[in-house]
Specification:
There is one protein chain. This protein is an alpha+beta fold. It has two domains: 189 residues, no CATH class; 138 residues, no CATH class. The protein is built from 15 helices and eleven strands. The strands form three sheets. Strands 1, 2, 4, 5, 6, 7 and 9 form a seven-stranded mixed sheet that branches. Strands 3-8 form a two-stranded antiparallel ribbon. The chain is globular, with a radius of gyration of 22 Å. 48% of the residues are buried. This is DUF763 domain-containing protein. It comes from Prolixibacter denitrificans.
Length: 405
């Protein structure tokens, strides 16, 4: 059994504003429905257990592209969005942050009763994954979030996160049932975090004898003790730098959206009439839906779909976000009744990007100019950040009015 992945992220505090959270729920549901419609529920588990895909997904949804808050907000939005339609989708989301994580056993037993799955075994699995990451793997991170995602056939994925107050970092752990054969011998599909130096990892294959009595695996190199998992290391800087993105891939998207190259392709007739910013957004959304694992090594690129709530690379362009949500929702709705043209156009968009990339030559010197231009134009497209909300609160206080909430 192996983890599917791990991510190290700067520890950020604060809340997601309601104007963004509601959009995250809508877009998160639409993307999930599109994946399930095209590839099935188990493929969604594979995606969410990949730390690179997860980080890219969170960036597309408008979260800070590199921070620990992606985990909490994405899993919270997915739980609220997917569970009301869980029977239709065949996907259930349990647990969450803090007190919500402690309700996971109760939620799993309830799902077991509804679906005929073995609830007691699911509860045992949930507790074991948490125990492994909190106790058997002593890497300095204390778990505060545990999310358990399962399908109607009993396959599951776990996304959980711990914090280290000593270095202000968070570490996210990913599990996938199809990669698990043992809970104590290399169980993780991936783990994401900064290298903390020497750690005690009783889940390492090399620690088999230690588990039998010789508890000295802390001397092992963590790079050797957690092999073959996908690891993400997010930088501490907030701004998106040219070194954070694959310029060939991002440049192809921008060229297609802004230089009207897509007009040459009859396959994309249904996308004509959309503005360039919405085309840029849908191009990145199409990758999240249809892209292979190799497409997500630069999660920062996906923050160019709608922007980020911290203003990086530019404020969240809410009108663009809303148009993308509407297009994707309509595509999913039509596909359910057999009208697949819109859904197919999104996939064709993804396929076209891959083809255009082969001959595209990026110009990194345009990167900063592009971001500057997007920031200037953001207000006209409903650009918002969490800092705007704070300014409004301060203005109300200056006017002598108090905020109740």
């Amino acid at each position: 059994m192996k983890r599917s992945g791990q991510a190290d992220l700067p520890l950020h505090y604060g809340r997601v504003p309601s104007w963004l959270y509601e959009r995250m729920r809508a877009m998160g549901l639409a993307i999930t429905e599109a994946i399930v419609e095209e590839y099935g529920p188990d493929e969604f588990l594979r995606r969410i257990s990949d730390p690179f895909w997860f980080q890219s997904f969170g960036a597309v949804l408008g979260m800070d592209w590199h921070s620990s808050g992606i985990t909490t907000s994405v899993m919270g939005a997915l739980k609220h969005a997917l569970n009301p339609v869980s029977q239709e989708l065949g996907i259930y989301v349990c647990g969450g942050r803090g007190k919500h994580s402690r309700k996971t056993p109760e939620e799993l037993l309830h799902i077991g009763d509804r679906t005929g799955l073995n609830g007691d075994e699911l509860v045992r699995t949930s507790k074991l994954t948490a125990k492994v990451d909190n106790t058997a793997l002593q890497d300095g991170f204390q778990l505060y979030l545990h999310s358990f995602i399962l399908t109607q056939n009993g396959n599951w994925a776990v996304v959980q996160q711990g914090m280290n107050d000593g270095n202000n970092m968070a570490r996210r752990y990913h599990w996938l049932s199809e990669k698990v054969s043992s809970f104590v011998d290399e169980p993780h599909a991936s783990v994401i975090g900064h290298n903390q130096g020497l750690i005690l990892n009783l889940t390492a294959h090399e620690a088999a004898s230690s588990r039998e009595g010789i508890l000295n695996v802390g001397k092992e190199n963590p790079g050797r003790m957690l092999p073959e998992i996908r690891k993400v290391l997010m930088p501490r800087h907030h701004d998106v730098k040219v070194t954070d993105v694959d310029m060939k891939r991002l440049g192809t998207i921008l060229a297609m959206a802004y230089d009207s190259q897509f007009e040459k392709f009859d396959d994309l007739l249904l996308l004509r009439g959309l503005g360039p910013k919405t085309l840029r957004s849908l191009s990145l959304v199409s990758e999240v839906i249809h892209g292979t694992p190799s497409r997500f090594h630069d999660p920062a690129r996906f923050s160019f779909a709608h922007g980020g709530k911290d203003g990086h690379p530019f404020p969240v362009q809410t009108s663009v976000y809303d148009e993308s949500i509407h297009f994707l929702q309509d595509a999913v709705r039509r596909a359910k009744i057999g009208e697949t043209e819109k859904k197919d156009s999104i996939k064709k968009l993804s396929d076209l990007l891959f083809k255009l990339e082969k001959d595209f030559v990026p110009n990194p010197e345009k990167f900063e100019k592009y971001i500057e231009q997007e920031r200037k134009e953001s207000k006209a497209f409903g650009g918002r950040t969490v800092f705007d909300d704070k300014k409004k609160t301060r203005k109300n206080l200056d006017d002598g009015q108090l905020e109740l909430f």
